[in-house]
Specification:
- This is Bacillithiol system protein YtxJ.
- By secondary structure, this protein is of the alpha/beta class.
- The protein is built from five helices and five strands; from the N terminus they run ααβαβαβαββ.
- The protein has a five-stranded mixed β-sheet with strand order 1-3-2-4-5, with helices on both faces.
- Strand 4 and strand 5 form a beta hairpin.
- The longest helix has 15 residues.
Length: 125
């Protein structure tokens, strides 16, 4: 791993999946996530894997989540790999696309959302 990869995060890091997340990789995954919001609040983190700011926000968010006593149900969407799903979220939930972005969904509706430095675990607790 190069010096810059250590600082900014490299490809090695991208291939690892965190146990914090359920991954949205299809429209069916998105449908299941939305259905789950009818029994509990869920969060969807929309992340651009090529953006330094998004990587930093993601790391900080994951640290915050680890410190919560009760772990919320969280979903992760890789915007570069699944842009069509991100577009579907924006259209179906009537929420403007941003990156990075965290959406809190309850009963199939966005009840809270934030982007960039405003993303916080406090949104879903």
């Amino acid at each position: 791993m190069s010096f810059f990869d250590k600082i900014f995060g490299g490809k090695e890091e991208e291939s690892e999946k965190s146990p914090v997340w359920k991954y949205i990789e299809s429209e069916e995954d998105l449908k299941k996530a939305i259905e789950s919001s009818f029994t509990q609040k869920i969060g969807i983190f929309k992340h651009s894997t090529s953006c330094f700011i998004s990587k930093t926000v993601l790391r900080n968010f994951e640290k915050e989540i680890q410190n919560l006593a009760q772990k919320p149900e969280l979903y992760f969407l890789d915007l570069l790999a699944y842009r069509a799903i991100s577009n579907k979220i924006a259209e179906d939930l009537q929420i403007r696309h941003e990156s990075p972005q965290f959406l809190v969904i309850e009963n199939g509706k966005v009840i809270n959302n934030a982007s960039h430095q405003h993303i916080s675990a406090e949104q879903i607790v």
